Amino acid sequence: MAHDEGIHHEEVTTPEQTADSSRRRFLGQAGLGLLGLGLTGAALAQGVAQTEKPQTPPEEKQPFPPGQRVGWAVVGLGEFALGQVLPALREARKSKLVALVSGSPEKARRVAEQNGVAQRNVYTYQNFDSIRNNPEIDVVYIVLPNGLHAEYTIRAFQAGKHVLTEKPMANTSAEARQMIAAGRAANRKLMVAYRARFEPRHVEVARLTQSRVLGNPRQMIGEFVQNQGSPNQWRLDRELAGGGSLPDIGLYPLNFSRFVTGEEPTEVMGQIYSDPNDPRFREVEDRVAFTMQFPSGVIGQFFSGYSSHRSSRFRVMSERGWADLTPAFAYEGNRLSVGRRVGLQEGTDMREVENKSQFVLEIDEMSSAVLENREPKTPGEEGLRDHLIMEAIYQSARENRAIRLGNLAALTGR
Ligand code: NAD
C-alpha cells in the first residue's frame, strides 16, 4: 500500500453544508460566551450560530517577483515529494523550485521538465555536495527516509545552504543534536517540517485553548493510526525509519499537544504492543498508547498504530467546552467543531476557517525566515524536544513506569 499520511474523504461535506448544518443544530440557542467564539450580535438575536471566515488581505496573496523568491532544492523524489511538496512549491508566494536531487536520473529529468527546473540543476546523491557552487539554491528540503535526514542535512549545511527537513527530524535525539550543531557552525537555518503547525484549524484550536475562551484546558485525546502495507518498505526498517508508528504518525498528536497548550510535558508513560506473528513488525513497533502530563495539570492520552484502518482525531476538553478536529491530521479536509453550553443548552458549532494549504504556508515560513534573517517557527530544537519525548515514551514502555522529562527548554539549549 502506498504510504499516505493524508486522509482522502470521499464523504467530506462542503463548508457550505457544514455551515448550514451547524446553523440548524444551533437554532434556539443564545447566551454567554458567544462573542468570544466569533458569533455576531445579529446571530445572537436570532439565536443562530454563524461561522467565522477570516480572510487574507489581497496583497498578502500576491506572489513575490521570481527574482525575489528564495530558491529551493528538493532532495528525494518519492511519493510525498511528488504528491505534496512540488505542487506546494508551485503555489508558494516567496519560494521557487530551482533544483532537484534524485537517485533516478530518468525520473529527475522528467520531473525537472514538468516543473521548469533547468537540467543543469539536477543532482544525484553522489554529486549532491556540489550544490555549494550553485548560488540559485538557498534552501534544501530533505524528503528522504528518516534515517538519511541527518546525513543530508549536515552535508547541505557544509555546502552553505539552509535546511528544511521532513519529520521525524532524525532517528534519534543524538542525531538531532548533530544537525543543530552543524547548522550553528555553518550559520544557517534549520527547520523541521511540522506541517500541522501551519494548518489554519490547528492554529485556531491553539488560539481557543490558550486564550481560555472555553476555560482552562483539562484533558486532551488524540490519535493517528493507519494500516501500513507491505513488510518490505523502509518505514518498517529500523535503520531507515528510526522506529514504527510513534515517530512516523504518533509524532503528530505528540507535537500538537505541545503547540496547543503552549507547555512542555513534565512526565510521560508509554505502552507498546506489536503482534509477534505479523511480519511487518519484526523491527519496529505497531501500537503505541502514551500519556503526557503538562505543568498546568493538563493530561493528554494519545495513540498511534500501523495496523488499523486510517483514523486521525484530536480533542481538547476544557472547563466550559471542547474543541475537536476530526479528521485532525489529513492533508486536506480537516474539520473543526467546538462544543459548549450556551444558556441552558449544549451546542456544537462547525468552524469554518480560511482554507489555506498547510504545505504552502510551511514552505513560505522557511523562505520568510531566510528573507528576514530570523528563526523559523519550527526550528531544529523543536524536533529535538520531540525526540527526547519519544525516547522517554519508549523507555517508559520498556521499564513499565512513568518517566520524568526534566526541563526540555534547558535540555535543548533554548
Ligand atoms: P518514499 O519512499 O515515497 O520516498 C523516499 C524517497 O527517498 C524515494 O524517492 C527514494 O528513492 C529515496 N531514497 C533515497 N535513498 C533511499 C534509501 N536508501 N532507501 C529508500 N529510499 C531512498 O517516502 P515518502 O513517503 O515520500 O517519505 C519521505 C519523507 O517524508 C519521510 O521522512 C517521511 O516521514 C516524510 N513524510 C512526511 C509527510 C508529511 O505529511 N509531512 C508525509 C509523508 C512522508
Describe the protein in words.
- The chain is built from 12 helices and 15 strands.
- A hairpin with a 5-residue loop joins strand 9 and strand 10.
- The protein is globular, with a radius of gyration of 22 Å.
- Helix 5 runs parallel beside helix 6 (173-186) and helix 6 (173-186) packs antiparallel against helix 11.
- It folds into 2 domains: 7-39 and 67-194, 3-Layer(aba) Sandwich (Rossmann fold); 196-353 and 380-411, Dihydrodipicolinate Reductase, domain 2.
- It has 414 residues and is of the alpha/beta class.
- The strands form 2 sheets. The protein has a 9-stranded mixed beta sheet.
- The model is unreliable at 6-52 (pLDDT under 50).
- It has helices spanning 15-26, 41-46, 79-91, 105-114, 149-158, 173-186, 200-210, 238-241, 245-261, 358-371, 380-399, 408-411; strands at residues 70-75, 95-101, 122-123, 139-142, 162-165, 190-192, 217-227, 267-273, 287-293, 299-305, 307-318, 321-325, 336-342, 345-351, 403-404.
- The protein binds nicotinamide-adenine-dinucleotide.
- Residues 3, 5, 76-81, 103, 143-146, 148, 166-167, 193, 195, 234, 240, 248 line the site of nicotinamide-adenine-dinucleotide.
The number of helices is: 12
CATH architecture type of the largest domain: 2-Layer Sandwich
Poorly predicted runs are: 6-52
What binds here, in terms of ligands, is: nicotinamide-adenine-dinucleotide
The CATH superfamily of the largest domain bears the name Dihydrodipicolinate Reductase, domain 2
Strand order of the largest sheet: 14-13-12-11-7-10-9-8-15
* Average pLDDT score: 88
Integer-rounded radius of gyration: 22 Å
Percent strand: 15-25%
Residue share in helix? 25-40%
Provide the CATH topology of the largest domain: Dihydrodipicolinate Reductase, domain 2
What is the CATH C-level name of the largest domain?
Alpha Beta
Report the sheet with the most strands, covering strand number, pairing sense and barrel closure.
9 strands, mixed
